[in-house]
Amino acid sequence: MKFGVFDHMDHAGTPLGQLYADRLQLLEAYDRAGLHGYHLAEHHSTPLGCAASPGLFLAAAAQRTRTLRFGPLVYLLPFYHPLRLIEEICMLDQMSGGRLELGVGRGVSPFETKAYGLDFAHTGEIYHEAFQLILKGLASDELTFEGKHYQFRNVPMILRPVQRPHPPLWYGTTIPENADWPAANDVNIVTIASRPTVRAITDRYRAVRAKLGKAPTGGPLLGVARHVVVADTDEAALAVARRAYPHWRDNFRWLFARHGAEPRIAGLYPPTFDELAAIDNGIAGSPRTVRDFVAAEVKASASNYLLSWFAFGDMTVAESLRSIELFAREVMPAFANVHADAAE
After folding, report:
1. What is the CA radius of gyration of the chain?
2. How are beta strands 222-230 and 188-191 bridged, if at all?
3. Which domains are delineated in the chain?
4. How far apart are alpha carbons 61 and 48 in whole angstroms?
């Protein structure tokens, strides 16, 4: 069982420079705690995501950490010129000594897409073409590509990633049908779905791999992301979560509300933290309470990677640092020998 971090880097109500400095301090704590990876969302024109250029922040992360793996979850491929992104991926992998985790996706917000002058109806096909192009470019000495949206001929690929042919790939999904492609192509996945849906996703992922004759154990990571707050007592943790979560949820809904709409996955994030905890999409409590939650999550969802939101809303650095400290010292060790590679 592995543990990592998912971060929207939503606006905390502090000056932006302080937000970035605080997150880098937390990254150092994640590194000390022995967490596996840090996964940073990319969003635009919304307080949900202040890391609009995740690569820029991750370049700083490469210098502040030693063993922590990190990457975007996800790069919104239609928003980038593919050659520029290939070069950025290579630079980050080299600067970190081969610690980059490469998340890719289309982008789920039509409003962010429109702000970049893109037609949401066409970004799906742009994403698929860009993905093939980027993988080819990372593995080639010279890039030639003929597609509908991109054409390149004999472009020298001077930069190289440390991890060949490319860094580990990541993909986000909330429905079982979308598990087929990553399962067949050895791509790690992360979901924020409810436990029953997560189980349907992990079961389908493993079934596809079994049908293709791929090893049932030791394969890609099947991750689930949850809001997690740990404090010395249940009451102390709940006080933090009940205050910070509505702030995060307001950021989550802000851009959609501006357009009189609701996010497609709004049902996963009800108005209060108590309601979130009631549907098992988050936990706030003492180390013992959080251990019980993690055990139940692993059993119910058959995931093998838990990504925690350790910083969200208006949580202070001190609150997040204490949560990380307790999680690393009193929660993680209980799962050192737990394996969820196969559905029960």
Report:
1. 20
2. parallel
3. 1-52+173-344 (3.20.20.30), 74-168 (no CATH)
4. 20
Q: Give the pLDDT of residue 340.
A: 59
Query: Can you give the pLDDT at residue 219?
Result: 84
Give the global pTM. 0.96
Structure tokens at 284: 């706030």
Distance, in Å, from the CA atom of 267 to the CA atom of 273, rounded to the nearest integer, reads 13
Cβ 150 vs Cβ 82: under 8 Å: yes
- If you search the block for the tokens 């400095």, which residue do you land on? 21
Give how far the C-alpha of residue 161 lies from the chain's centroid of Cα atoms, to the nearest Å.
21
Specify whether the CB–CB gap between 339 and 48 falls below 8 A.
no
Q: How far apart are CA 8 and CA 312, in angstroms?
A: 8
Indicate the pLDDT class of residue 343, thresholds 50, 70 and 90.
very low
Task: Report the pLDDT value the prediction gives residue 337, as an integer from 0 to 100.
Answer: 87
Pseudo-torsion of CA 305, 281, 181, 90, nearest 10°?
-60
Taking the C-alpha atoms of residue 125 and residue 13, their distance in angstroms, rounded to an integer, is 37
Query: Are the C-beta atoms of 16 and 50 separated by less than 8 Å?
Result: yes
